[in-house]
Structure formats: C-alpha cells, structure tokens
Design goal:
mainly alpha; A middle domain of Talin 1; 14 helices; 69% helix
Length: 360
Amino acid sequence: MIKKIFSFTLILNLLIFSCNSDSDDNSSEVWEQKSEMLTNWADNFIIPSYTTLTNNLVLLEESGNTFASSRNQQNLENLRNSFINAYLSWQYVEMFDIGLAEETYYKSKMNIYPTTVSRIELNIQNGNTDFNNSNNYAAQGFPALDYLLYGIENSDELILSKFNNEPQYLIYLSNVINQMLQNTYPIVEDWQNYRNPFIGSVRNTATSSVNKMTNDFIYYYEKGFRANKFGIPAGVFSGGALPEKVEAFYNQNISKALALEGFQAIKNFYNGNGGVSLRQYISEVSTEEYSELSTDILDQFNIAENLINGLDENFYNQILTNNIKVLETYDAIQQGTILLKTDMLSVLQIPTDYVDADGD
C-alpha cells in the first residue's frame, strides 16, 4: 500500500502556507462553521462507523469461535458472511486515518492487499503471531482472512479438511480475528477523549482537524479507493493488468460490493448527511470562479458510480475479459481527484499534506 511521504521542505511550506492563510480565516463565524462540521464528522461519521465496525468484528469473532468448535459447511458459511459484513463496514472507516489510528498504523494492519501468502504460511508453520511487526502487516487483517476462508485450498471440502487436520490454520485464523479487535478497541476508546480536541481544532494550520481530515479524505479517495481498488489491478501504474491485486482476491465476487460501499462512504462524508459538510462549506466560501464546484464534484461522483455499477461483480474477471471498462472507470474517478485535490483545496485554502508517489 502506498504510504504518505513527508519532507522537511514540504513541512516548511505547509507552515508558511498556514501562517499566511490563517490571517484570512480567523473570524468567529468561520471557526463556528468549522466546529459544526467537525462535530458532524465526529458524531455522525467517525465514531458511529468505528462502533459499527467493532460490533461486526465481535460478531466475526463469535462466528469464528463457533466454527472452531464445529468445523462444518454451515458454520464456514456463517463465518464467511460475518467476514463480508465486517469487510463492508470497514469501507466506512478506512478514510479516518487520524489520531490514534494514524499513530498505530491501523489501516496498514487491517487492509493491505494483496495479502502476502508466503508470509502467512511461514507464520502458521512457525507459530508466529507478532502482528505489530511491520513485516506482518500484509499477513493479517481482512486480506489474510480472505485467503484463509477462501484460498487455502481449491474447494470448500478441502478447506474444511485443512482446518480439521491442520489445527495451526485454525489457530492463525482465530489470532487474526482477535488481533483485528485488539487493533480496533483502543481507537474506539480513544475517541471518547479525542473528540473534544478534534472538534475544537478549527484554525487553518497544517495540524488542525479540518486540514488533516480533509487531506485524509482526499488521500483515501486518491490512493485507497482510486489507485488500490481500480488503478493498480487495471495496470494504470505498471503498464500491464494485475488482476491478482484486486481487493478480496480469493473471494473475488465481493470486489464490486466493497468498491460500491467505499464509494457510498465517500459520498456520504462529502454530502454530510444533513449536517455541515464539505459540500456545504465549499458552496459558502467559493468565489465566482468556483461557484459550481460543490455540484461539479457530486456530479463527477455520480458519473464514476454509474460506471462502477456497470462492472462485473468480480473485478478479477472484469479485468481479464474487458479491462477497458475498468480503465474508463478509473479515469472517471480520477476526474474527481482533480476536483478534490486541486480545486476544492484551493477554495478551502488547505495545502496538500502528502506527496504523490505513484507518478499519476
């Protein structure tokens, strides 16, 4: 997964930009509006999304325990359904790489794909469960479960036989699920204390909540969504298609569902769902040059979403049979990147806090 790259020069530029722009952004009215937007983000998006994910991970753990007690086809299906539900709810959380989540590399421990099968197999054979080791980030989380539940053998019968006859696979499965909960609990708890400072951080500085969260939103849209879900598997950055790099490669039939859920999370966050939102904020501070920007962004989202809906449920098959449609979808998503990263940040007077590293 592509990581944020910082430099001394970038940080210095951010500080200069922040000092210059802060003088134009110090009215109590602007600060109040920002605080209302941050309140909406915390109370109606971030905290509820983490809560839903935690609840689904608990259900996943319960299904895992049931499967461990009785390893049959029905319990395997129930465990898989719990996995899918938790994976769908993850799509609403991944963009919130702020606070303790950023400090603990949370998203890297939850959803680096494709998973590293050789590392998983080595860990299973050695009984290694050091999931805080960065070498194991790609051997845990949802992609690791995807492999364990769908990919360790070529049929359900053989998968069940594997779990029944080689208990080390069952142990690793349980450890991965448990670790996902252990990664999540501290972040949920931390938001009880982090919420008020988050809401109160309204100044236009490189470290303020509005600036960091807006950048995290764009970073997810550009990297976690556009590049990881579409660009990399379609071969945009490699000169050739890499279908094995789709999300949920071993299940495959949920790759489109995950993408649509992720895009719904993007649209919800942008629109605000009834609260003060980026869309509303853009409309209120836009100059005449950008008077239609808030609508243009949403229109581009809808264009991209329609193209996603036109893809096969299985992105792996889609790339193999007609990759042009995936590339066209990527291009539509990319147009949204330009609107967000160039035009929206310009209107909001927020500098980009990460450096593009994939040459796009």
